[in-house]
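S.,

Sequence below, as promised.
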Amino acid sequence: MTDLEDRVIVVTGGARGIGGATAAVLAERGAQVVIGDLLEEAGTATAATIDAGGRGGAEFRRLDVTDPDGVARFAAAVLAAHGKVDGLMNNAGIVEDQSTFELDLEVWSRTLAVNLTGSFLCARELGRSMAATGGGAIVNVSSIAGISATHPEVHLAYDVSKAGVAQMTRSLAVEWVGHGIRVNAVAPGYTHTQILDEVGSADPQTMSDWLGQIPTGRLIEPPEIATVVAFLLSDDASAVNGHILAADAGYSIY
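The prediction came back faster than expected:
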């Protein structure tokens, strides 16, 4: 089990889903986790549950990743409270299916603002803190939709934003290696989250199509992604930098 004792790690979008599962795994392995999210009730509840049962601990701080000043205040508050930042999981994200012929500019702009610009803002501000305190590790959440075309769903803005996250990961890995900061990304496949449950309930055929494209024939569970993130944030991954790890149960090679 990867040891993260005494590490301070920020998880954006950590109120639920993959982010919530990752926050729990990181705390189980000894980290002090700071959950940043707009979902205050869910985030507070997740932090309280983790704090009561983990080796490490968890706390919630409200965060809008699209607000540059807010991200700067969030980073300053984390540094003031803990004296350092050792890791960041850039997980906050949104998706909206819409045919490109009907794609609304507002949907395009909002998706890129959250998924790509938000990841940049958090990496920049928290990366500054890491550089000032001896380095750290960042894991950005891309997607299989950012490295290959997916179907039958149609969400161009999401695909482009996640491809941007993948390239940002590579660029930052090269730029920041001299500051002792490793930057990697995980590209999850179809994962059992609230969003996919809603899609499956509304459109069973789409869910069936997805399962038919996954060699294992099942959705990935959030803790399966969380353990990958924990590895990339740990010293066990000291030789891994600038890598986009597809945690997709074989989808991308099927």
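The domain at 8-248 is CATH 3.40.50.720 (Rossmann fold).

Coffee later?
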